[in-house]
Amino acid sequence: MDRKSRTSRSANLDDTNEEVNLWKQICIALAKLEHVQKDTANVVTGINNIHTAVNMEQGIPTVVGNKLMDFYRGGIDLSNSESKIIHDIIEKVSVLIALRDASEYNHVIDGKRKKRKADNGDDSSSSGTSGATPSVSSKRSKTHQHILTHGTSVAARQPKQKDKNEEWILAVVISYNHDKNRYEVEDVDQDEFGQKQRYMLQPRNVIPIPNVDEAKGLTEINTGQDVLALYPGTTCFYRAKVAAPPSKNKDMSYGGNYKVQFEDDNNEYKYVMPGHVLEVPKVK
């Protein structure tokens, strides 16, 4: 079957382009990280100066001890702040890489998204996803026990369109309508007119994507299991089979990633970061 790869179709980057906005956010976060690291260096210097000036064997004066404790507490707070900023940067960079790869390695033909050519030429949609519910195992991540908040990254199943295969796209939550029990989500990519499409979707058509911290705590998906994975160089999720989870992936160039085989992809192996490998939603 043919698969659609999704690219950023704007030739001129401007302030409304997702790539530019992401890059600006990354630069701001990096500047903040630099300040935090400078403050951390000052704290470490202060601690070292106290240890150098005080004879620990003779005891530490109360005033000096209190100051030392303040340094330690400040150092812990700064370390926590540094960790959060780094994780936020990694998340944004992962999305930026997906968008940039799509822009670099795919191009628009006649105003349409370039398709990922399959080896069998069949245009029928893949089985097992129609009418699916994103009820992810509790061992992997949280299900919809709570309302997803604005800005949450998700895999969203686009409404079925005539003559088009079912497609799960990378999107972000805009809002949740309690009365209609629908999420409004926005495609991270732009269409051929430079607009980002928004969709009103049932919760079963929205799968939350774990952030960096959550992804680290997830139980690995076993070899041979079917998954939805973000195809490298695109912002689309497709069905794939796990060839090796991160702990068993021996390729040092892609350490920490899943090794997968996408359906109808000439039996090639691809590598996908853990947060972008999701369990296949169960069919009702």
From TrEMBL:
One Gene Ontology term, aspect cellular component: SAGA complex
The signal peptide here is none
Q: Where is the SGF29 C-terminal domain?
A: 144-284
What coarse category fits the chief subcellular location reported for this protein?
nucleus
Has UniProt tagged this entry with the keyword Transcription?
A: yes
Which spans does this entry mark as compositional bias, Low complexity?
124-138
Which controlled-vocabulary keywords does the entry list? Nucleus, Transcription, Transcription regulation
| Stretch list, region Disordered | 112-161
Instruction: From the Swiss-Prot or TrEMBL record, state where the protein is found.
Output: Nucleus
Q: What is this protein called?
A: SGF29 C-terminal domain-containing protein
What broad taxonomic lineage does this protein's source fall under?
Eukaryota, Fungi, Fungi incertae sedis, Mucoromycota, Mucoromycotina
